[in-house]
Amino acid sequence: MSNLNEVGDRDAWRCWLCDEPVDPEGSVNSDRGPSVDLGIAKSKKAAAGTERLAHRACNTRKGAVKPVVAWSPELFVVDPAPIAATVERLGRKGGREVVARCPSRADADQAATWLVDRLSRFAPDLAVTTQVEPGGGQFLLVLRTA
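Above: the chain's sequence. Below: its structure in token form.
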């Protein structure tokens, strides 16, 4: 198991679950304090590199289940796909997946930029690109593995 400072430095002191800053000087007993999330191991031996920085409250709330990662409330997206499940599928199978619909091209472009940035921290080992496609009077946000 890595030291908290090593994990924090690697993750730039941002919670991998909520994407908010984590105070490196915060108490580990505080809800907003730092903790190390060990992830969900598929076997008794956790895979290398599964340790991630999280707020203690985010880590506790997640427990031993797959995390729920929210889309930014500042985005105008319709029917957004669950981010964690999408990342898991694309990491396993690769390919392309429609992850949201947006009413305008500008909304879709803003969501695409946000999603690539968010995934660079949530799933740094998954290389993805976004594409905006018109469809049905709206714009589809497509996520592709590189």
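The chain has four helices and five strands.
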